[in-house]
Amino acid sequence: MSKVEFNPYLSAPLYGRTDVEELFVEELQVIEGEIPVDFSGAYIRNGPSQKYEPMERHHWFDGDGMLHGIYIKDGKISYRNRYVETKGYQYEDDTKKSEWVGLMGDMSKNPSFERLKNTSNTDVLYHNNNLLSLWYMSGEPYRVDAKTLETIGIEDFHGQLTSSISAHSKVDENTGELIFFDYGNKFPYMMYGVVSADGKAVHSVPIELPGPRNPHDMWITEKHSILMDLPLFNDPEALKKGRYRVKFHRDVPSRFGVIPRYGSSKDIRWFEAEPCYIYHSINAWEEGDEIVLIGCRVKEPQPPKNASASEIERMMQYLQLNAQLHYWRLNMKTGEVKEGELCDMNTEFPVMNLDYLGRKSRYSYNAHIDAAVTLKFNGLVKYDTWTGKSTKYMFGPHQFGTEAAFAPRKNSKFEDDGYVITYIYNEKTDKSELVILDATQFDIGPIARIALPQPVPMGFHATWISGAKFYGKDA
Fold it and tell me: InterPro entries, from UniProt (predicted)?
């Protein structure tokens, strides 16, 4: 058996399996309960799927992006999935083999037009009536038809986009604007921008950092955007050799840069906080003189050194995570920062009611992380982010999930008036299902379970598109 076959990021059913087919199934079977008729829309999740046998060692992040879509209307559910047909995907589909070594390999061996393949496998947003598929390393965004999941092509917003876009850009549901950032290894090391709701206007400005950084997410409020400069970043010596290796600098503070939504470079204001890393933000809002930030904070982002650990073991260590619900309050008048832990559970991949993004909100739905050798989600946690109190729903033996989405009821009256939906995979049966939970009765478990036509590998991030936006205002 080859080395690759022992790699859990390729061989374990939750990860980059190569047997996932592109399917469309018009009506799925309900296993238990009933699909509520008081909500409609689409739940789309992005994640890696490996089409061809990989070169050298394979990291979970290396797989080609694949979108899995659930479409809900009138109490019925359909399913569709498709690869994101990036430049790299099309190149390999022509040669019928892998042409890139991945994140942990020697990138100098890769095709010169893209030294690290933009797999577009990380996040997915709904903007200007289509999907945007995005990549965690910051790259060209891909426009995808939301109904068919066909790749339309690279999105450059009528030639106005002059930078890349990172995975965790934001769409303000109230204005339709796309707010983004880009980062890289060349001065000024970051760009920040806003795209109009119709995609016709792009505002972008450079953000000067002390050096190359590795930010993963951002926050938005109604008036501001908050960018991150965190002390976990690429080792400069490794970069010179074409390799990717990060180091946590414990003596360097975390910094949050607050910029007006349409501000210029000179308008940014930096606030210092305790050293940490933040993979994913939850929400932010203005409250008097303060900007309140809620997110998942990792205190020790770099695993302890182990000289005897194999390459695979070192890769897995970084994905065990240990993140806690945390708040920061930035005083725009005095410059003071207050921060604190809200819960000590290890939870991540948070989602919320997107209608409240950038506005004062209370609830977050996080994946509960199993104490395993690598990342596995064994439940969901509903948080009251004002108090840190929580309610758990655990999936059960041999079952693991993925990032969920919050789907409001039609004409919802309050923030958690709706449903939480997610994919669950059973390792014992090698089957997947969709579960629907009532967000107001979170701990009772699913009110409906729906069989999926094939196993859905564990993936990264998801979005919810309301029925009113997807099917029309009467849906």
Answer: Carotenoid_Oase
